[in-house]
Design a protein that fits this description.
Layout lengths: L1 H9 L7 H5 L12 H11 L6 E8 L3 E8 L5 H13 L1 H5 L3 H8 L5 E4 L2 H9 L3 E5 L5 E4 L29 H11 L5 E8 L5 E8 L5 H12 L9 H8 L11 E3 L2 H9 L3 E5 L5 E4 L17 H31 L6 H10 L7 H21 L2 H21 L5 H14 L5 H21 L1 H17 L1 E2 L2 E2 L47 H13 L1
Helix pairs in contact: 8-11, 12-16, 12-17, 14-15, 14-16, 14-17, 17-18
Length: about 525
């Protein structure tokens, strides 16, 4: 808790961002009762904007009015069929007051009164129409937004065998509706904010009232309030601006495309950050072990999920240490290898002109290049290029005497092991750490490998994610929360939520949830006898 208090002391009113002072909205002027003046002001602002439409007409054939909208953001069909004809009828002219007619007779779901030019710009950018009326010192925003958006699809980077197949899209309203379908309680709170001087990107902070700690919510608010940039296009921008240690290779924020993952983390007391224009949501705080968990761990039987988790931990070590151990053993510790295997490896390396260190670095760099090429190429050609390139280059390199066959196997096993890590950000961090580990192994042998591991562990132990230790609940040890780390205990044993930033409402289910079929069997047998 002391961490949050220290962070709050550092933020004060004098710390107003420079960009906020420099980029004061010049359009923040009050609308005039003269419609001509309002139109001239907005036309000046939207000069050389061919997609901004000014449509002038008379309400009921008597009152001058102009409706503004941005082509492509507005449902033009609804505007032409429902809105404009309703405003041009005689009923509009005979109405007692224009305001009452708009509220009672206009077929629009939402009406908002705007009083400044800046509010008009905000409504136009959000896809609303702005209705300017003569002799009225205010305008009316009509919510008839409609723009193209992608349909729901399964996330390609987080596929599961069993579980929901829907993923977030680039529409924040769609994403919030997907969350509402998972969490139907009104305690799911959503707070909208706008970031970016020019992009005006909508960002929504979501949490469950009564589960998320007040200290965590306040810390999220403080960090977001410090953001003052010209534009935000993806949640990675926000991630870089709110994480605890920006120089660390390890991700300190969870990013996901799956609504079920966000909902499950919200039920554990975490906070999610969604952004308009991207399907990726951020979840804070994060721990190292949460990055190694998949949503499918909770959709399979607990014994199977536990076995798969141990397999991930094993291949995590393989991905990080296998090339460095191979280099260390061949360079400094040949006595550790059985004689028969050592003779085989020596025969394969007889014509290789490079030491094991250079050989490993060459193959790792080539493998990373092939992987990157497979990602950037079109899907139809990406997989073929990766597989064919690996086969052709590997075979040619062995025949040319540049690398040995055992090194090809080591690099291939390392690449396969790195694919078992569920989170791409965690996997790429281990891929980057593999190179300094190889250099330490080639310089100091197994001593260098142990030194590298100690440095990594020390760094991870000092990391925090919104005040939560990165290696929690193992460091510091919290036995109650180990039920969902190295193993995945049955759901009927997970009675408590993890202790993230407090102990608020830790009970997640009633006790004695273990299934007991014997009682039901007794009742059935009695019913059969009767």
């Amino acid at each position: 808790m002391q961490f949050f208090k220290q962070r709050r002391k550092q933020t004060n009113k004098e710390n107003v961002p420079a960009m906020e002072r420099e980029h004061k909205q010049p359009e923040a002027v009050v609308l005039s009762a003269d419609i001509t003046q309002n139109i001239q002001t907005l036309q000046t602002i939207y000069e050389n904007c061919c997609d901004v439409v000014f449509r002038s007409f008379r309400i009921g054939g008597e009152v001058n009015a102009t409706i503004l909208y941005i082509d492509g953001l507005v449902n033009v069909e609804q505007l032409n069929i429902a809105v404009l004809p309703s405003l041009m009828t005689k009923q509009a002219a005979e109405a007692t007051t224009l305001a009452s007619f708009l509220k009672e007779s206009l077929p629009v779901s939402s009406l908002t009164t705007v009083q400044t030019v800046a509010e008009c710009i905000e409504q136009l950018s959000s896809g609303s129409c702005v209705l300017l009326i003569d002799k009225q010192p205010e305008a009316v925003a009509l919510s008839i937004a409609k723009w193209e958006k992608r349909s729901l699809e399964e996330p390609t980077g987080e596929g599961v065998i069993r579980g929901p197949r829907e993923g977030f899209t680039e529409s924040i309203s769609t994403n919030l509706s997907l969350l509402r379908r998972k969490l139907k309680s009104p305690k799911l709170k959503t707070k909208a904010k706008t970031f970016g001087t020019y992009t005006q990107t909508t960002v929504v902070v979501t949490y469950i009232d009564g589960l998320a700690s007040e200290t965590l919510l306040e810390e999220v608010e403080v960090r977001l309030s410090r953001i003052d940039v010209d534009g935000i296009f993806e949640t990675s921008y926000i991630e870089e601006l709110i994480e605890d240690n920006p120089y660390s290779l390890f991700p300190q924020v969870i990013n996901t495309e799956r609504p079920d993952v966000v909902a499950a983390n919200l039920l554990e007391g975490r906070v999610a950050i969604l952004q308009d224009g991207t399907p990726f949501a951020l979840i804070v705080p994060a721990s190292f072990y949460s990055l190694l968990q998949s949503s499918e761990d909770y959709y399979q039987r607990h014994a199977i999920s536990t076995m798969i988790r141990w397999l991930r931990y094993l291949f995590l070590l393989v991905s990080l240490l296998l090339p460095s151990l191979y280099v260390a053993v061949l360079t400094f510790h040949q006595e550790m290898v059985p004689t028969t295997l050592l003779l085989t490896m020596a025969a394969s390396r007889e014509l290789i002109p490079f030491p094991a260190l250079v050989e490993a670095l060459i193959m790792e760099i080539v493998f990373e290049a092939l992987r990157e090429a497979g990602v950037r190429l079109p899907k139809q050609a990406g997989a073929a290029v990766s597989i064919v390139g690996a086969l052709v280059i590997g075979q040619a390199a062995v025949q040319a005497g540049i690398v040995s066959a055992p090194m090809i196997m080591v690099v291939a096993l390392t690449g396969i092991a790195s694919f078992t890590i569920p989170r791409y950000a965690a996997g790429i961090a281990l891929r980057m750490l593999r190179f300094p580990m190889i250099l330490l192994a080639g310089s100091l042998g197994l001593l260098g490998v142990m030194l590298g591991l100690l440095l990594i562990l020390i760094h991870m132990a000092t990391l925090r994610s919104f005040g939560v230790p990165y290696l929690s609940p193992m460091a510091p040890m919290q036995w109650e929360e180990m039920k969902d780390v190295l193993v995945r205990v049955p759901l009927w044993k997970q009675n408590k939520r993890p202790r993230l930033t407090g102990t608020k409402n830790r009970t997640r289910q009633a006790p004695n949830q273990k299934p007991d079929p014997l009682e039901g069997d007794d009742q059935l047998s009695k019913g059969g006898q009767s």
